[in-house]
Write a structure and sequence with these properties.
Largest sheet: 6 strands, parallel
Strand order of the largest sheet: 3-2-1-4-5-6
Radius of gyration: 20 Å
Distance between the termini: 43 Å
CATH superfamily of the largest domain: inorganic pyrophosphatase (n-terminal core)
Helix content: 40-55%
Number of domains: 2
Bound molecules: guanosine-5'-monophosphate, manganese (II) ion
């Protein structure tokens, strides 16, 4: 058995909220990743299984092709593409279930309607410092993924028998992607008890791995090669790597949502590199997307917060910049030494 980490009082409040409602909108963060889509679809399948109707999943913008195999993914609504339809769903739901983010600005264009909605808001998340916008907040930053919280909450509410293969596949995807295939944030023995439970429910973990990690276009592979060969700057004195990509460069490789996934992690396998940053121009949203990874105690989230209006986890963080790509690169390079003076002090 796994231990009861989540406060009993929160479980009761969550049960009450779910049991007294009929209609649900599930929403997750902009640039949805495996944990965002996994936790959303897992909760969609679960809520339907216990008789809730309607249950809808809305994401702010497009999600990567390598998550399209997931059960229920064809039903996901993209806010940017049909804001009016989504607004109506938000307006008419009893509960808005927020998954995998800690602040309403992380849902981008959907934040105003959610903020002004009369629905009850339930938040399940594992990012530090959740803002207080929800009626019930279940936030456990020590958990490796929101999907871990989803699994624990379903079991603790007494619905373990509602878990099925669809739910298990979605939960496994979030655990796998948010831990880099169990290579970081994954030292908790109970994580493997959960994985074993999901396997008992019938998941084929090898095929989920192939679906997610071996499903890219060849252009994305070339983009990766280009980043490593031509675009990676190393700052050996700071154990840091920087990769930058302009919109022109992305176009050359037929860039699609999700193609950048994992590229920022690559320099981390170089001996002596413990901090990696990627700056990518996003012309459509007129901003620079910032992604950061670190090892050990080096606070990627602090750098993202200080310089790029972002945040995240200690070792995986991000943000954005509305300055030009060149100005953003300069800002990063200029402020990099500050963090080493701080680290050394
Ligand atoms: P990624 O580099 O995979 O896009 O994001 C890594 C992590 O950084 C995410 O799980 C999220 O916690 C955080 N993150 C990414 N972008 C932002 C952002 O714009 N704002 C905040 N607060 N966190 C972000
Ligand atoms: Mn997550």
């Amino acid at each position: 058995m796994i231990s009861k980490i989540i406060d009993e009082r929160l479980i009761e409040q969550c049960s009450e909220l779910i049991e007294s409602a009929e209609s649900f909108c599930i929403v997750t963060h902009i640039g949805p990743d495996g944990d965002a889509i996994g936790s959303s679809l897992a909760m969609m399948h679960f809520l339907r299984k216990i008789g809730k109707n309607p249950v809808r999943v809305i994401v702010p913008n497009a999600f990567p092709d390598f998550l399209r195999w997931m059960p229920g993914s064809e039903e996901i609504l993209i806010y940017e593409e049909q804001p009016e339809v989504c607004n109506e769903y938000f307006r008419t739901s009893d509960v808005i279930l927020c998954l995998d983010f800690n602040s309403l600005n992380r849902i981008g264009p959907a934040q105003d309607i959610v903020r002004s909605s009369e629905a009850k808001i339930l938040l399940l998340d594992h990012h530090l410092y959740p803002e207080s916008f929800a009626d019930v907040t279940i936030s456990y930053p020590l958990m490796c993924a929101t999907c871990e919280i989803v699994f624990r909450v379903i079991c603790r509410m007494g619905y373990a028998s509602a878990l099925d293969l669809n739910i298990a596949e979605c939960i496994y995807t979030g655990l796998m992607t948010d831990t880099g295939n169990f290579s970081y944030n994954s030292n908790n023995a109970e994580l493997y008890i959960i994985v074993s439970e999901l396997m008992r429910l019938g998941i084929d973990k090898d095929s989920i791995h192939r679906n997610v990690f071996d499903n890219y276009s060849y252009q994305r592979m070339r983009l990766m090669g280009y980043c490593l060969y031509k675009k990676m700057q190393i700052f050996p004195q700071y154990g840091t790597a920087l990769i930058t990509l302009s919109d022109d460069e992305l176009q050359q490789f037929f860039f699609k949502p999700g193609d950048a996934e994992g590229i920022v992690n690559l320099p981390m396998s170089i001996n002596g590199i413990f901090f990696s940053c990627m700056l990518r121009e996003d012309k459509e949203h007129d901003e620079i997307k910032v992604s950061m990874r670190s090892q050990g105690t080096f606070p990627a989230n602090q750098v993202a917060k200080d310089l790029f209006n972002g945040g995240g986890h200690l070792n995986a963080a991000g943000g954005k910049s509305t300055e030009s790509l060149e100005a953003t690169i300069q800002k990063f390079i200029e402020h990099l030494p500050d963090y080493f003076e701080k680290q050394n002090n």
